[in-house]
Write a structure and sequence with these properties.
By secondary structure, the protein is of the alpha+beta class. Helix content is about 20%, strand content about 35%.
């Protein structure tokens, strides 16, 4: 499909409507969109416009561009064959919803003037958050008839929490994933965004229709790794949980077997949301979301740092662990990685892939071991060049639910254990609390404490922003077996000290 570039001089179309399409600044081929924030493109005009239809505006997500709807995607071809008018917008790939919302609102005004009709927004991932910011906070409601969100993290993503953790710092500095966009998608920040957005009196004026996915793609891919990390938080598509894809006042069309990439393709979802494009269908029953934050259970071990030469990470595995999946995320693709069990049996990396989402540019090196032998395992990595890394071990184990972090009295963190299964006196480790000022990705460490008992840790109010809490724990079960885990949690605290959390 070809697309017509709409320049910033869009008013020329308005001055001479009969010649609008002839006067456009040239035709650019399929997939040749520049990706320049603020530019938008008209899809091929169908021979006859579908009766009762409104123009569809496609909005991309994090680290993406308008090409996401064209390259390896049949969405533009399907909409053309069904006689819909279409437009494609490029936003800032790494800016927050406030910046993108303002930009999108100004461009929706131009599109509304060009088409002479209200618009329907079809959004993928963070694009749905940007769209809601435009509608609710930037006065774009007057231009929008309804919004379709395809796996939008309306409640944030725990992968963004991980990207801003202290263990991820070494890698983040290299690949630059700590930006305004990932900052704003942290679950604590999105809880704040939901509060200031959902409380607006016009929030229900624009209908929202949502989709969620439950597939992680194939083993070895970046989405499979994301799916493992998000597994404790419920069904997910490798980047966003089903619960996060929902709005309490939205209409959920479908939760299906899509991953975060496939859900945006025309063949996957267009036929499912098409009935909502031209008909005034009755609203579905509002979804009932969990309003009480669940404790964060301990299902992963996280480590990070930098080195050159050889690095050995030791991994403790408790008895009756069903499986472990290891993801070594690094700046280098050619690292040589081997895993050795207590029985001296060795395993090698089986899959390597490059991330194009929350950790765009990093390489994932993955392996999985079923029914691993209990004891101390060694992960040995050889890399002659400087290596910045983030290691994640995902445990499939009953112990995951026996060790949890929870917030108490709103501003204290406490570790909770099942005393019938874990030796409480054996617990030790460290807690790190970091603070990022509102709207900025730079972090500062508020506190770091070692502990050897189950104490509560207060969160000092350092100002408005995101507070990132990381707890590294090791201990023994009541049967004497050693274990270790990492638990992450984020909250948002406003200038008055009010806490917002997932």
């Amino acid at each position: 499909m070809k697309k017509c570039f709409v320049s910033l001089l869009v008013f020329l179309f308005l001055l001479a409507p009969p010649f609008a399409q002839d006067a456009q600044a040239g035709i650019i081929g399929k997939g040749d969109a520049t990706g320049t924030p603020g530019e938008w493109y008209i899809g091929d005009e169908p021979t006859s416009i579908k009766s009762g239809s409104l123009p569809l505006v496609f909005v991309h997500g994090l680290n993406s561009s308008s090409k996401t709807w064209i390259d390896q995607n049949d969405m533009d071809e399907l909409t053309y064959s069904k006689n819909y008018q279409t437009a494609y917008i490029d936003l800032y790939p790494t800016k927050n919803m406030w910046d993108n919302g303002q930009l999108l609102a100004s461009k929706l005004k131009e599109m509304n003037a060009y088409f002479g009709k209200k618009l329907i927004l079809v959004t993928h991932s963070k694009g749905g958050v940007d769209a809601q910011a435009a509608i609710v906070h930037a006065n774009a409601q007057q231009y929008v008839d309804k919004v379709i969100t395809l796996s939008t993290p309306h409640q944030g993503s725990q992968l963004a929490d991980l990207a801003h953790s202290s263990w991820a710092g070494w890698l983040a500095a290299i690949i630059g994933n700590r930006n305004d966009a990932t900052y704003s998608l942290q679950t604590g920040y999105m809880s704040y965004f939901r509060s200031v957005t959902d409380s607006k009196p016009n929030i229900s004026a624009t209908p929202y229709y949502t989709f969620g996915g439950t597939s992680w793609g194939s083993f070895g891919g970046a989405l499979y790794w994301g799916g493992l990390y998000l597994r404790p938080y419920g069904p997910n598509d490798g980047a966003v949980t089903v619960n996060s894809s929902r709005l309490s006042y939205g209409n959920e069309i479908r939760v299906g077997n899509w991953d975060h990439s496939s859900i945006r393709t025309g063949s996957a979802t267009f036929n499912l949301f098409e009935p909502y494009l031209t008909q005034s269908l009755p609203a579905m029953a509002p979804l009932s979301l969990n309003e009480v934050a669940e404790p964060d259970e301990a299902s992963v071990l996280i480590r990070g740092g930098e080195f050159s030469g050889t690095k050995v990470e030791r991994i403790q595995i408790e008895p009756n662990t069903k499986s472990i999946a290891i993801d070594w995320m690094s700046q280098n693709k050619d690292s040589v990685i081997t895993l050795q069990g207590p029985d001296q049996k060795t395993y090698s990396i089986t899959n390597t892939s490059q991330d194009n989402g929350m950790f765009e540019g990093a390489f994932h090196h993955q392996m999985k071991v079923n029914t691993p032998t209990a004891g101390t395992w060694k992960l040995k990595v050889k890399q002659p060049k400087k290596e910045s890394y983030l290691m994640q071990v995902a445990y499939e184990s009953e112990l995951n639910e026996d060790l949890q972090m929870e917030m108490v009295h709103a501003k204290e963190v406490k570790l909770q254990v099942d005393k019938t299964k874990i030796n409480q006196k054996s617990i030790e480790g460290s807690i790190v609390i970091q603070y990022s000022q509102n709207g900025k990705s730079k972090q500062k460490k508020l506190s770091q404490e070692e502990f050897n008992s189950l104490s509560s840790f207060p969160i000092k109010h350092a100002g408005e922003g995101v507070y990132h809490i990381m707890l590294d724990v090791n201990g023994k079960t009541t049967k004497g077996a050693s274990f270790e885990r990492t638990i992450l949690h984020t909250i948002y605290m406003d200038a008055n000290g009010k806490v917002y959390q997932p």
